[in-house]
Description:
By secondary structure, this protein is α/β, with parallel strands linked by helices. The chain is 30% helix and 26% strand. It contains five helices and seven strands, in the order H-E-E-E-H-E-H-E-E-E-H-H. It has helices at 3-14, 63-75, 102-109, 152-161, 170-180, and strands spanning 17-26, 29-37, 46-53, 83-89, 116-120, 132-134, 143-148. The protein has a seven-stranded mixed β-sheet, with helices on both faces. Helix 1 packs across helix 4 (152-161) and helix 2 (63-75) crosses helix 3 (102-109). The longest helix is centred in the middle third of the chain and has 13 residues, at 63-75. It is globular, with a radius of gyration of 15 Å.
Amino acid sequence: MPNSFFYLLKVSYFGGMILAFDTYYFNDTAKTVALAFNWPDDKPHAVYTETLTGIEEYVPGAFYRRELPCILSLLKQIDLTDIDCIIVDGFVYLDDNATHGLGAHLYEALNQKTPIIGVAKTNFATIEKLKVPVLRGDSKNPLYVTAIGTGLKAAVNNVAMMHGSYRIPTLLRELDRLTKDGV
Length: 183
């Protein structure tokens, strides 16, 4: 049995939970939501949310400066003991020299103890070797997967098997909806 398939089974059925984060920005406010689930789930086991004000403006090339504080603040509500990995909406690396993006900065902030998987909806042209496009359902537009602290092949397999027959997995679509709900 290939190692990535074994990892997929271990994480999906016998391991800890996955956390997926997304943040929605409006005015100087950010609403961050995290869902806890297992890879094949169609419904989250838990939902965490936090709204912060005084959020800095986006700086091109430094997205992590805006989003990382939101994720770290929400993580204070969550026990990471049984968390196998975290998914962020974006890239782990910004280029093939492993320049840190949001995912790698989060990995460092968590003392390199929790693997991070980046799932991006749009391509980032400066990275080729450290990302894998993943086609889901009948979509011709891939998701772009990057990873740190876990193998990229295992990350791709897990994202590909997430629930849903569309390009965006069911729970990542729900996560996006929840960030905008009530704002």
